Amino acid sequence: MRRRPGRARPGQARRRLVRVLPLTPAVVLILLFLAGPIAYCVYIAFTDLQLTGQAHASFVGFDNFRRAFRDSEFLNAVWLTLVFTVLSSLVGQNTLGLALAALMKRASKPVRTLTGGVVVTAWVLPEVVAGFLLYAFFRREGTLNAILEWLHLPRQNWLFTLPVLAVSFANVWRGTAFSMLVYSAALDEIPAEITEAAEVDGAGGWRRTWHITLPMIRRSIATNLMLNTLQTLSVFGLIWVMTRGGPGNKSQTLPLFMYEQAFQNSMIGYGTAVALLLLLVGSLFSVVYLRLLRTEV
Amino acid sequence: MPRKRTSRRLTADAALLLVAAAFALPLAWVVLSAVDPHADLRVRVPDGFTLANFRAVLTPDITYTPLLNSLVLCGCATALTVVCAALAAYPLSRFRSRLNRPFLLTILFATSLPITAIMVPVYALFVRVNLIDTMQGTILFFAASQLPFAIWLMKNFMDGVPRELEEAAWTDGASALQSLLRIVLPLMGPGVAVVTVFSFVTMWGNFFVPFMLLLTPDRMPASVSINDFFGNRGMVAYGQLAAFSVLYSTPVILLYVLVARRLGGGFALGGAVKG
Is A112 a member of any domain? Predict the structure, then answer.
């Protein structure tokens, strides 16, 4: 049923309409509410727009960006975002997700169902609820300290002494299910003969993992790392609920810093410049992700 | 090597149970505290069973209005998302065009952008065009932010419906819209369900978007109003907070279970994300 180009047919105009018209609502919505704000973001990032609503924001060039890289609080936020991302996404969610998926292949069915259910529930819960649950878990009077007390281990006020660690763990708790699902699907696709052949050849567990399993699922690993990182970069609610970025700014990652500059300090221009940097980092990851998927589109 | 295999299974079981226990602790807190007359911050067996926490929060102010707001916001935005995505996916899946590939790449690029980062400009923009603090503005933004992923998922599901069935309908004189509504969408029922549930669940749990775009307390959805348990009401009533969390979370968990069941255990998202 493919139509040859260049031959005018009576129904051709209508057919073109059928091809274009259905796309319109989606394209209009995306242009107005996604592309529009992104363009606006690029514009305000170069102005000194303030929340107080001065009549005209003036163009200030790269001032906001120069200012950011001299602002020790901004550098602190960059550092914390890096720590948060590496700890919770690269190390935590990714490794734990892969370990869970691998263990599930060997475990008995009831255990598999139970663990999968619990881990996925943590993932499906609304972000703010997850924040509260882990706030309760890490508080001085919370469950973690109760367990440590029972084990006769030293207790701490986790949200105060190690806030980044606490919110990173929270993000692992909340996000591991995604990696687990991606890796379970990937491991299921490895043909059983390959693993068995390696087993017959006497390859031990670790060597099998290193030389066979990991290379075979490397595309899934890359995809998963990319998506986890992008998701982690934009975590706001979880940290907001648990620590508000505090104490001081000890757990203030870039999204929280951006929010504080724009709304508490009323500097929309500066906050947007920070947002633009975040968006650029996100786009960079996005492009890498697209390259990974290139063959599949 | 049956013995070796059994011992390996037992090790795996033990390790998984340990992880499951660690993941279950915070969940146990919310469930137990909700029915505990003297709930505090740690997991413990309640010293009595009470529904007082639920009775205390089941008032128009605390529960009904925010949940209704959530339902209106997420329901309308999901409906808009699914309709727009189904329409957009149709030509992308059915007709070959030079523009399909760049369009899909742009869509895929947009799915991975951190939406959090554009909320400050969206706020500034909404103030300018008078959409700030309106339900319709928030609904439109929700739909737009969910659309790229919804279109991508929908197109992949639609590719799975064979063209032959539709071509038969075309020769019988059906229009494209008719064949989309009568043939393609019914055949990809589970796919539409996944897109719907995924959009709804994502929006239901979203905190930052309504937090930025809505200002009037009466319009706040549950994801924002839940913060009132801290701050405004003085001493935190943990039992009530837990009860509210249970009420607020149950719908999305049920929806997830519904979809996961229908698709036979493994959630299709894992596969969908891979393309």
Answer: yes
The answer to whether the beta carbons of residues A243 and A255 sit under 8 Å apart is: no
Q: Are residues B73 and B184 in the same domain?
A: yes
Residue of B nearest to A129 (CA): B245
Q: In this structure, what token pair is assigned to residue A218?
A: 């490397």
Which residues of A are less than 8 Å from B84 in CB distance?
25-26, 29
Which residue among A115, A173, A285 sits closest to B26, beta carbon to beta carbon?
Answer: A173
Max distance between CA atoms of chain A, in angstroms, equals: 84
Domain of residue A171, residue span: 72-296
Does one domain contain both B76 and B102? yes
User: Could A185 and B144 be called an inter-chain contact, meaning their C-beta atoms sit closer than 8 Å?
Assistant: no
Give the mutation candidate from A23, A42, A280 for the B interface (greatest B CB count, under 10 A).
A23
Containing structural domain, residue B185: 62-273
A-chain residues within 8 Å CB-CB of B73? none
The residue type found at B207 is: F
Ordered DSSP codes for B206-232 = --HHHHHH---GGG--HHHHGGGGTGG
- Indicate the number of domains in chain B: 2
Q: What is the CATH number of the domain that holds A82?
A: 1.10.3720.10
**Domains: count for chain A:** 1
Query: How far is the CA of B183 from the CAs of B157, B179, B193, B254, B256, in angstroms?
Result: 14, 5, 16, 29, 26
Q: Where are the alpha helices (DSSP H) in B35-134?
A: 52-57, 65-94, 100-111, 119-128
Tell me if B56 is assigned to some domain.
no
The residues that bridge with A59 in the sheet, in sequence order, are A47
Domain co-membership, B228 together with B126: yes
Closest by Cβ to B13, choosing from A1, A111, A289: A111
Over its length of 275 residues, how does chain B's per-residue pLDDT go in tens digits?
Answer: 566 778 888 888 999 999 999 999 999 989 988 888 887 777 777 777 888 888 888 888 888 999 999 999 999 999 999 999 999 999 898 888 888 888 888 888 888 888 888 898 899 889 888 999 999 999 999 999 999 999 998 998 888 888 887 888 778 777 778 888 888 888 888 889 889 998 999 999 999 999 999 998 889 999 998 888 876 555 678 888 899 999 999 999 998 888 877 664 444 444 444 33
pLDDT at B230: 74
Instruction: Compute the distance between CA of residue B139 and CA of residue B47 in angstroms, rounded to an integer.
Output: 44
Read off the tokens for B160. Answer: 């799975």
Question: What φ, ψ does residue A155 adopt, rounded to 5°?
Answer: -105, 160
